[in-house]
Amino acid sequence: GAVVSQHPSRVICKSGTSVKIECRSLDFQATTMFWYRQFPKQSLMLMATSNEGSKATYEQGVEKDKFLINHASLTLSTLTVTSAHPEDSSFYICSARDRASGRNEQYFGPGTRLTVT
Amino acid sequence: AQSVTQPDIHITVSEGASLELRCNYSYGATPYLFWYVQSPGQGLQLLLKYFSGDTLVQGIKGFEAEFKRSQSSFNLRKPSVHWSDAAEYFCAVGGITDTGFQKLVFGTGTRLLVSP
Predict the structure, then answer these.
(1) Residue among B43, B104, B109 minimizing CB distance to A110
(2) Number of Cβ within a 10 Å radius of residue B21
(3) For a disulfide at A116, which of A84, A102, B14, B93, Cβ 3.0-4.6 Å?
(4) Distance CA A35, CA A44 (A)
(5) pLDDT tens per residue, chain A (117 residues)?
(6) Which residues of B fall within a CB distance of 8 Å from A7?
């Protein structure tokens, strides 16, 4: 149980284009999903917290107009990197909290490797 | 604010030897503590977690961790390491964002290398 998927697993795009990454909770409902960014050989940095049916809450220093987050249903959140630049190349990981669990436990997706050329 | 320190960037252990990965945290209240493992190019897998109760926590793959409040530590241990344990290990503490949401704060990770 508690499986989170991400699609795509890898994506290469050209500078200036936009790319959308999906995060799905497959066997549970997730009122809250989180988006992290991980640079090579570094830790995960929280970018934003996404709550179903409301606007995402971004961490300090994260451009909300560049990283658009939509949490349209209890099982799906999307991250759109707009006008991508090479410095946006990174490993993006989502996680989800089980609605039925009151505990601070997150289930992580397998990640999406974004390369901007 | 919450923070997590993993003082060892790399650790090399011989296969079959014991392992201890260090984790120190800073948090004002009783923390939720986690250890995750990440293989190259993969997402994170939860090894174990501490919320309350018994301070010695058993996890998957033969790992355990001990919560020591007096030392603000949550070190990960395994009595006998296997070559498949080579990976990146992250300690995390559950906290609250500036806007009141719960979030995880991760340490910088420790890369475990297993020698034959």
Answers:
(1) B43
(2) 24
(3) A84
(4) 10
(5) 688 999 999 999 999 999 999 999 998 888 889 999 998 878 889 999 988 888 899 999 999 999 999 988 889 999 999 999 999 999 999 999 887 776 667 889 999 999 999
(6) none
